[in-house]
Amino acid sequence: MSDATAPNNFLHNIIADDVAAGLHQNVVTRFPPEPNGYLHIGHAKSIVLNFSLAQAFKGQCNLRFDDTNPEKESQEYVDSIKRDVNWLGYDWAGEVRFTSDYFDQLHAWAVTLIEKGVAYVCDLSPEQAREYRGSLTSSGTNSPYRDRSVEENLELFERMRRGEFDEGSCALRAKIDMASPNMNLRDPILYRIKKVVHHHTGDKWCIYPSYDFAHGQSDAIEGITHSICTLEFADHRPLYDWFLTQLPVPAKPRQYEFGRLNLNYTVTSKRKLKALVDGNFVDGWDDPRMPTISGMRRRGVTPAALRKFCEMIGVTKSDGVVDVAMLEHAIRDDLDKNAPRAMCVLRPLKVTLTNLADNHEELISAPGHPHRDDLGERLFPFAQTVYIDRDDFRVEANKKYKRLVLGKRVRLRHAYVIEAEDYVADEQGNIVEVKARIIENTIGLDPEDGVKPKGVIQWVSATKHASFKVRLYDRLFNCESPDADDDYTVHLNPESLLELDGCVGEIGLAEAQVEHAYQFEREGYFCRDNSAAELVFNRTIGLRDVWENKA
Ligand code: ATP
Ligand code: MG
Questions:
Q1: pLDDT at 226
Q2: Looking at the predicted structure, is the pLDDT value of residue 4 above 70?
Q3: Within 292-432, where are the H helices?
Q4: Beta bridge mates, 477
Q5: Where on the phi/psi map is residue 168: left (φ > 0), alpha (ψ -120 to 50), or beta?
Q6: What is the 3-state secondary structure (H, E, C) of 321-335?
């Protein structure tokens, strides 16, 4: 499992110091997604960080749904997030938690703030409130409702809760400082009216707490010791601390910020990913081109590769952009070590072996993996007709072409050396069949006549094989920073998906498990797609980085 003791993790050092100073018996972190979309690669960084820190200190990590915006949230998202966290290899402590589990307590604490005279019901419209708030360069103006009495505020807040007011007509605000240079302290909103049914609490509430009011108090209720979030929340920390000072909370968590993960060629914002789904630019949240955890899973990326990547990029106090080639490297590296090998032919061309009987059948064996005995052996038949790739035969070619050429030899991988004698073309001149002969005694041996083959190509028996479709995926965006433009969809790579039908592979592939990756020799890493009733293989990634020189 991941190890958070990597030296490039400053949070690890902070926690180690806290533990050494005896501040905490038990380290408790949490991963707090909002269930308003599927998780993406950026969330993977936060998951790996929070769970591996808890593991490193033998503490616990909670999964808490930050569900305070019911209009954008749903059970579908809740379920997908749980599945993704589990799939990444982590188990949260105890039951899944929901901020909405704490709505009663949060409401009671809002009342506490009113009673202390540090919260008030404000009737400014959202537009007016924005004006009163001022700007980064000018201080705000006190709301005319700021000095309402405690009694009046208690009554109005209760009427808000009972649903007596329309959405937007009033809100509960903290009374802090409208002149603060930190905008978050200019009387932030604690509760707003939303007459929306909640996926978890149903119609119990028509007022919902703001993120700022809910988050720190939820951390306190759960006894979170280190509340880790991304840098954009640094300016919210004084507010986070203000609430904890004002309220009789059972614990005093501390917030720490780290730089979010940004990847080039990639969009990492749930809102923008949702727009791709809603606009049918992709085939759902789990489209294998999506940088979502579910998309990567469907594409054949392994949890180990993602965890490795998250460790490689480290944790810093500033935002940066990581090269997607690093992610691809982590994926390739893991698959190279672990994916069983198989042969496939994506664009089949029939080869008839003229010196074999038409009922010839011979079992060929090959290792499941060149360096992994535990992956066993594969067996597949050799026959009088086999398929090779259309690109692997030419009538004439120069010396650089190391495949089959008319009159020349090539080795069929794991099997015989063959020599091309003739070919058949259709009316348009397309080659539809090659006639060749096998050179006897060449399985694992060079030809006795000393004429060595020029190269090795893959092949599949024409009689017994698996037939399938493949989807060749490439990067979804063809521009390094698609996010830089308002309309990032203009940067969608028109060649991000190429579907090929009529592909063939070793017979064993007919039994391939879903989301289980293979290396198709010479072609790349592929895994069986999860959705189709038919046999489809998704290309996880090619064997080499072809973008390196393109960019
Ligand atoms: P998005 O911007 O995609 O909507 P979010 O931050 O609103 O993401 P949340 O569900 O609120 O999504 O995030 C859950 C946790 O994941 C938060 O702690 C958040 O800081 C973290 N997180 C989200 N995106 C990234 C990222 N790109 N890199 C690192 N952590 C992230
Ligand atoms: Mg968020």
A1: 98
A2: no
A3: 293-299, 303-313, 324-338
A4: 492
A5: left
A6: EECHHHHHHHHHHHH
Where residue 3 falls among pLDDT bands split at 50, 70, 90? very low
The question of whether 480 is a catalytic residue gets the answer no
Kindly give the distance from the C-alpha atom of residue 425 to the centroid of ligand 2, in angstroms, as a whole number: 60
Report which residue type is found at 203. D
**Segment 22-40 mean pLDDT:** 96
Calculate ∠ Cα 140-144-149, nearest 5°: 120
Edge-to-edge strands, sheet with 517-520 = 341-342, 517-520, 524-528, 536-541, 466-473, 497-505, 344-345
CB 192 within 8 A of CB 153: no
Catalytic residue selected from 83, 146, 194, 260: 260
What is the spatial distance between Cα 244 and Cα 236, in angstroms, rounded to a whole number?
A: 13
Confirm or reject: Cβ of 261 under 6 Å from ligand 1: yes
Tokens of 484: 């830089």
Name the one residue in this structure whose structure tokens are 């958070």.
4
CA distances from 544 to 328, 341, 344, 547 (A): 9, 16, 18, 9
CA of 34 to the centre of ligand 2 (A): 6
Instruction: Return the H-helix or E-strand segment holding 388.
Output: strand 385-389
Q: Which of 115, 14, 90, 102 is nearest to 65 (CA)?
A: 102
0.90 exceeded by the pTM? Answer: yes
What residue type is assigned to position 239 of the chain? L
The reply to whether ligand 1 has any atom less than 6 angstroms from the CB of 184 is: no
Distance in angstroms (rounded) separating the CA atoms of residues 227 and 239? 14
Which residue's CA is minimally distant from atom 14 of ligand 1? 33
The C-alpha R_g of the chain, in whole angstroms, comes to 31
Q: How confident is the model at residue 548 (pLDDT cuts 50, 70, 90)?
A: low
According to DSSP, residue 459 is labeled -
Q: pLDDT (tens digit, 9 = 90+) per residue, 88-105? A: 999 999 999 999 999 999
The shares of helix, strand and coil residues in the chain, as percent rounded to the nearest 5, are: 30, 25, 40
Sequence-ordered list of residues with C-beta below 8 angstroms from that of 458, at least 6 positions apart, any chain: 343, 344, 345, 388, 389, 412, 413, 521, 522, 523
Give the distance (Å) from ligand 1 centre to CA of residue 241.
21
Q: Does 442 sit in the ligand 1 pocket, CB within 6 Å?
A: no
Q: What are the residues whose beta carbons fall under 8 Å from the beta carbon of 278, sequence distance 6 or more?
A: none
Q: Rounded distance, CA 51 to CA 43, Å?
A: 12
**Greatest Cα pair distance in the chain:** 104
Spatial CA neighbour of 483 closest among 273, 187, 216, 294: 273
Contact indicator for 497, 527 with CB cutoff of 8 Å: no
Binned at pLDDT 50, 70 and 90, residue 26 comes out as very high
| Nearest C-alpha neighbor of 490 from the set 261, 292, 285, 281 | 281
Closest ligand (CA of 259): 1
Burial class (CB in 10 A: 0-12, 13-18, 19+), 190: buried
